[in-house]
Amino acid sequence: MAETQELETSGYGEFDYMNGDVYIGQWEILDKLKKRHGHGKFIHNLSGVTEEYEGEWNNDLMEGYGVYKYLSGARYEGNFSKNKHHGQGSYFFPNGAKFIGQWENHKMSGRGVYTDPYGTPWEGVFINGTFDSTIQKRLKAEYEEEQKISALKTVASAQITEMKKVFALEKKTWKEHFSKFIISNLEDVDRLVGEPFARWEDRNGDKWNDVLTQLMDVEVRILRNKEESKILGERIFAPQLQGAGQVLEYIKHTDTRKIELVLVNSESGKWLIVSCTDLAQKP
Fold first, then answer.
1. Which pLDDT tens digit goes with each residue over 184-228?
2. Domains of the chain (ranges plus CATH)?
3. Is the pTM here over 0.70, yes or no?
4. DSSP per-residue letters across 26-81
């Protein structure tokens, strides 16, 4: 009677795949298929260049501790779950930066330390791959503030230009067209800034035109907070850099003249003149 030979259900070996990939390590028959299972080394062929993983496998997936060397030169050393960085791990970037900490679903997530290419450590909590710390929040807030200020500088320049256009029209229409920059509806601004407000009648059209001409080359002051105001002071009621209520201050002082102009972003979204001062100075 012939002796029945038992088939191996696990072992150690080398497997060469048709695409050039190579696996060297432990294997096991699972679900009637021979799969990478246990400790092993996998070399992934990418058109003649390779990436490499050496570590633990579970049912043909990277699972447990391992080291993955990426094509870019980056390297990950730590825990894997279902082929992804998951758990405690260290990632070394090609530029010299590194991250040591918690990972979730292939992203930095949890407490960790990121050290930038210059050797500066950033310690804190990472959420979905993004550094979330007091420093990071402050830097983000500062960046967003600078973006708002940059946009407001563009607006400020455009407003002076728009007001100047009025005086290129027929002189008899100046008051009519300039009135759109004058506060006429108090409800549009009374929660934002306080009286008194500038009027067309404060000076004639030629003088309004001259004031604007003088301010064309002035760098506008974008208020970050009410306390920064050099003109209105406590007459500003609204927080700054929040949209409606934003104040722009134009200031030009010379030995012989003092010119100050203030605009506010009204409730309706229009930029209106709050105050305008044009005084002669004694030399």
1. 999 999 999 999 999 999 999 999 999 999 999 999 999 999 999
2. 10-136 (2.20.110), 139-280 (no CATH)
3. no
4. EEEEETTEEEEEEEEEEEEEETTEEEEEEEEEETTEEEEEEEEE-TTS-EEEEEEE
